[in-house]
Amino acid sequence: MKEAASKQALSIKNLTKSSIWDIQENDVFRMLNSGSKDADVKDNLRHYVDIIRSAFTIEELKEDTPAIRKSYEKQGYKVGQVALDESTKVLWAIRKRPIMRVTDLTYENIRHISASKLVEVLERNFGGGWDSLSQSIQDIIESGFDISTTTLPKDRLHKKGGMYEKKIADGYEVLEVAKGTWVEAIFAKLKPETIKPRMKFDSVSEDDEDAEIEDNFVNHDEEDELEEFNEDEMNEDNYRTTFEIETDPDEEAGELSEYGADE
């Protein structure tokens, strides 16, 4: 229910390169057409189309015939008209980008696939196990999923009460990669979405403004009286000046003129 409500709340103006993965082709047509009368959407249409292109392939059709429509529909496209403004309409064929290979995974779409889908993608690309993936792909996957691995002999992997059994019971999907007589098990589970804390400022009420401010000022002169200065105790060891004595410019000029005269 919560996910459905979230999708219904999406509009062309609040789409991001992450949330775009939550919608389908028909949603794109609906959002573009409903926003065609919005001045802000028209002024920033290229920006919104760029976001859509990050998750969808868009083809503009020059002709609208049953044969052309059927050709694109066979390839998985949805065909429909898009109103760029109140007077301009174009025919688009739109298809969501498939996530088939590990190179299709991004930080934007990783949280929009299930653990079982991730296992399918990994299985389609695997051969050397988890460590065969590049560090960048591992980082993308681990940004959205809890991943753990274990490598054991075939006859020990499914041992009762072992890691395999516990992970499955905890809701993990697993991919088994054969390595001779051993098997690497890769466990994946979608991470719970965390909400970043926001700084909250308490509002100040009129009562607070009128409240008496407590005076916590401490006069150290009253509590800790400093010892009075004793001139008799001053000597050359404890006396120091912190100011510079400037020389007389006229006196310096005189010295320079005398130096020149000697030469």
Main traits of this protein?
6 strands; alpha+beta; single chain; 263 residues; disordered C terminus; disordered N terminus; 3-stranded antiparallel β-sheet; 37% helix; elongated
Characterize this entry briefly.
The protein is α+β, with helices and mostly antiparallel strands and 263 residues long. Among the domains are: 2-96, no CATH class; 102-190, no CATH class. The chain is 37% helix and 17% strand.
Task: Report how far apart the termini are.
Answer: 102 Å
* Mean pLDDT rating: 80
Question: Major beta sheet, specifics?
Answer: 3 strands, antiparallel
Task: Classify the beta-strand content into a percent band.
Answer: 15-25%
Quaternary structure: single chain
Q: Could you name the ranges where pLDDT drops below 50 across 5 or more consecutive residues?
A: 1-7, 220-227, 238-245, 251-263
Which structural class fits the helix and strand makeup? alpha+beta
Write down the Rg: 37 Å
Strand order of the largest sheet: 1-3-2
Helix share of residues?
25-40%
Topology, element by element:
Layout: H1 2-9, H2 25-34, H3 39-43, H4 45-53, E1 56-61, H5 66-74, E2 78-83, E3 89-96, H6 115-125, H7 135-144, E4 145-153, H8 154-157, H9 163-169, E5 173-179, E6 182-190, H10 206-210, H11 220-223, H12 249-262
Antiparallel strand pairs: 1-3, 2-3, 4-6, 5-6
